[in-house]
Amino acid sequence: MADNKHFIHEIIDEELKEGGRCYGQKIHTRFPPEPNGYLHIGHAKALEIDFGTAELYGGICNLRMDDTNPTKEDEEFVEAIKEDIHWLGHDWDDRFFYASEYFEKMYEYAIELIEKGLAYVCELTPEQMKEMRGDTSTPAQSPYRDRPIEESLDLFKRMRAGEFEDGKLTLRAKIDLASGNFNMRDPVIYRINRLPHHRTGNEWCIYPMYDFAHPIEDALEGITHSLCSLEFEAHRPLYDWVVNNVSVPCKPRQIEFARLGITHTVLSKRKLRNLVENGMVSGWDDPRMPTLCGLRRRGYTPESIRNFHSRNGVSKVNAVVDFAFLEYCLREDLNANAQRVMGVVHPIKLIIDNYPEDMTETFTVENNPEKPETGSREISFSKNLWIEAEDFMEVPEKKYFRLFPGNEVRLKSAYVIKCTGCDKDENGNVIAVHAEYDVESRGGNTADGRRIKSTIHWVDANTALDAEIRLYDRLFTVEAPDLADCNYLDFINPDSLTIVKNAKVEASLKNAKPEDRFQFLRLGYFCADNKDFNADNLVFNRAVSLKDGYKPSV
Ligand code: ATP
Ligand code: MG
What we know:
- By secondary structure, the protein is an alpha/beta fold.
- It has 12 helices and 27 strands.
- The chain is elongated, with a radius of gyration of 31 Å.
- The model has no long low-confidence stretch (mean pLDDT 96).
- The structure holds adenosine-5'-triphosphate and magnesium ion (MG).
- Adenosine-5'-triphosphate binds next to helix 2 and strand 8.
């Protein structure tokens, strides 16, 4: 993000000039998640904008739990949010806050508004308030608007003291009942709600509304730029009204950007939570989830996610990005950086009949041809190998150039072999393929220069390790599962996970660690599962296939 200037940076550049709003100041942003779920790829966009902008200007970014709503917050989510942000490569240093730390201050600012004649206690029920909110040609009404200041002060203090039932009274900002922006029609800024709060317990029975609380939180932390998604645009006049009418120490500026949408998934914590609670996925970190912990477990790298956001850019126009572009960014990263290995997902035995029974030789292969500095490793070869079942056909289809009786193929990095036949069980299923090797083709090239059309992967049956391979596909079968008039749960892909238990992988993988990523030759990019992988239980998740037809336009 840092090398990629967007419209927010153009605004900031202007403000930093002599005479500008931020001249001589340090740029200070914040990321304010509500701790009611795990972060997803959309939050990562906001993270890149908030932390990335601070980074670009040598400024700082706070992490603040937006926990003014007492109903849903949970410590599990707070810890997970911190971990995901660190994983993406951002840090808030010692500036970690809870919005609930400011409840007392917010209360004082509310009192200040009442004393200035800019807020009043209203007795309309939510239904009455709705009835009296007017429309574009009729102003809203409240019979309590002109309540004397002293009376509002007294009632508000008694609201705090717990003298009234939930929902009975509200505190409303006195702004403009005729405003064309309904957010300015004397919005409610405090309500009574006797729900225990995850941090303040039962200390409060009144809670500030987001539109009042958020600008105060920003101002108390010295935030210069409050960057948020587009749905807050119509709330900006209220944001400005609050910072201009209470005696906060600074006046942050809110700037909105478009939210990220991605095809074939949903990006709402409520919907993601539903998937988890309905058992449609194994948890928030299921590798099919668009959560950061799910993507991480799947095999995504922080770099691929940051790169994805950077290339999508930042604008004011909501757009839906093809999931294939996210995969493209991952593939690009893993192609450059992942170690190459061989593994066989659907193994069948290959017996080299003219290879000595008790002989084993080793081949030295490059770990990553894209990165020679990563060196090489040894792989073993012997008479009995595992190959992919689909690399043999007793009766070849048209244009099938792999193993069939009489045909030659190259075993990657090893030898050229010629297929001689196969063994079958009583049901006619192929249980082993037979071949003979060309002694003079060590390394995979023929001595006489004859062309070999196909190269297949293999592992030595003497040294191969058993592995479980988890093959993932899209979680939803349609591009836009969360269209307003549909139920996204109806579009769950029943085949989004295939588990293969008896795969065979090369011996070097015994040294793999959870979250290590590999290119399995010809099969795709795989990641050692960060929960279930251990030395006795090798579990690899397919992060992404090797190729697809996707071509990015950026
Ligand atoms: P959700 O609808 O997924 O629950 P939210 O906006 O309620 O999202 P918050 O925890 O309030 O979630 O979000 C923290 C920050 O992340 C906010 O500034 C919000 O604007 C931003 N954000 C959330 N989703 C997206 C998205 N899809 N694209 C860009 N920014 C997002
Ligand atoms: Mg929210």
